[in-house]
Amino acid sequence: MSKIASIFDLETLARERLPSVLFDYIHGGSEQQLTLQRNLDDMRALALRQHSLRNVARRDTATTMAGDPARIPLAVGPTGLAGLMWPNGECEAARAAADYGVPYCLSTCSINSIEDVAEATGKPFWFQLYLMKAQRVNESLIRRADKANCSALVLTIDLHTQGKRWADEKEGLGVPPRLTPRNVLEMLTHPRWLAGMAGSKRHNFGNLEHEIEAGKSVGSLSKWIEEQFDPTFDLDTVRWVRKEWPRKLILKGVMHPDDARSALEVGADAIIVSNHGGRQLDSAPSSISVLPQIVEAVGSRIEVLFDGGIRTGGDIVKALGLGAHACLSGRACLYGLAAKGRDGVHCALELFEQELQDCMMLAGLSSVSEVPPGVVTAQPPLGARR
Ligand SMILES: Cc1cc2nc3c(=O)[nH]c(=O)nc-3n(C[C@H](O)[C@H](O)[C@H](O)COP(=O)(O)O)c2cc1C
Q: Whose CA is nearest to atom 15 of ligand 1?
């Protein structure tokens, strides 16, 4: 591909470079993928109102997210197994984010460990925590994130059980992917990916492999993790984390105003309105459709971040117009990583910034901290008089 013009080009390149079991893992959602599709459809159904008689020569895209500087209102969100998409993938993505000037969030289920990423970037990053049934592991992960000087802990609250992704089950996704005849053939016919992975520092869940006995054998750790998601997780669990964690606490997976109010009550510093990119409760509404009611409930008292369906700079403006303070990107940056490693994540961020700049100029906006609500509307039906 000669020129990468959009995130969708990165998606195409990722599809070409990865064995299908890995591309489908990134691209897909749970069950019928209704929520995944809603995230995309509802974002696109929103209209941006143009203001054409304003001087927009000066524009400010910078902000802070949970206290950390962000050159554009977008952080690289947590995605498990990123290190299977590119050798040392989490370190590469974290470096791209640090160089670009946006926050990076490392997943609990990463291939590189917290310590690998700390060493690779030398800058504070965020750590996303899945609480496990094994309390000793939770305590250890929090301690390690603290020691690595992570500036925020992103506690994911929507994983009482893992959403079923039918393609992953059928294709044998795991760490490593199951060696079915199809997967072996796919790996052999994607030699660039295969050669890259051979040189990767790690091939297992870097944060967990030394925490438990099952971590010693590649393969059994995936099974252990699946059994560890804790259905007893509730507000008391969050209170415990708040007590243990000294710096910024962000709750990820808020889809209801009640949960947003609870986040305030327990002293969280920010929330992420998110349905996990349509990978958990299938049939949940799109995250963009619930954003306004959550902003109305708590927006003046806590930082409201947003993810789900962000693929262009215009999508960021839509989320800001509906009251989000800033956004996170899951798949878009992961497509970049899978396509071109660190350069691909950089490319995704650059595309977002260019599109954000263009969108601000065309919509008559000078600052990301002042996107008035009227900028975003539902597309009026054809023939409506206004
Ligand atoms: C491949 C993949 C892996 C993910 N892994 C995690 C994870 O480990 N922890 C987490 O909190 N969210 C995880 N998510 C959810 C993302 O952080 C984010 O909420 C979602 O991708 C946002 O939607 P978008 O992909 O449309 O940007 C994952 C998403 C994808 C696509």
A: 276
Q: Which atom of ligand 1 is nearest to the CA of 40?
A: 26
The residue whose CA is least distant from atom 29 of ligand 1 is 79
How close is the Cα of 331 to the center of ligand 1, in Å? 7
Amino acid at 258: D
User: What average pLDDT does the structure give for the chain?
Assistant: 96
Those residues whose C-beta lies under 8 Å from the C-beta of residue 227, and which sit 6 or more positions away, are 133
Contact in structure between 127 and 145 (CB atoms under 8 Å): yes
The reported pTM is 0.97
The CATH code of the domain that includes 178 is 3.20.20.70
The token pair at 292 is 């306004």
| Catalytic residue status for 276 | yes
**Domain, as residue range, for 144:** 7-376
- Number of domains composing the chain: 1
Over the stretch 341-383, which tens digit does the pLDDT of each residue have?
999 999 999 999 999 999 999 999 999 999 998 999 988 778 7
